[in-house]
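Subject: for your reference before the review

Hello V.,

The reviewers asked for a structural picture of the protein, and I figured it would be easier to keep everything in one thread rather than splitting it across files. Below is the amino acid sequence we used in the manuscript, unchanged from the supplementary table.
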Amino acid sequence: MGLPFTLSILLPHGIIEIPTFVLCWAVGLSLGYKLLGTIRGGGGLRSEFKRAIRLYVTRLIPLLLLSACIEVVITPFFGLLFSPL
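And here is what came back from the structure prediction:
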């Protein structure tokens, strides 16, 4: 259907969703790194887990909900706008 149609479908929610997923991956990697440190004798996994949960609840889940709302409301509008009928 062409590049304008594809971009109009992907960009509205992708601008928010892709960085949010990258941040989720970073938090997961951080937890994994702390877990390895805990296994090797270091401490601090509990505090890192609390920080991760707080970040998910206060920042990441609202961003994903916003992205979902954009995908449901705005993306179909742009899809119809750039749709070759």
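For the response letter, the relevant points are probably these. Residues 3-39 form the longest helix (37 residues). The mean pLDDT is 86.

Happy to draft the paragraph if you're swamped.

O.
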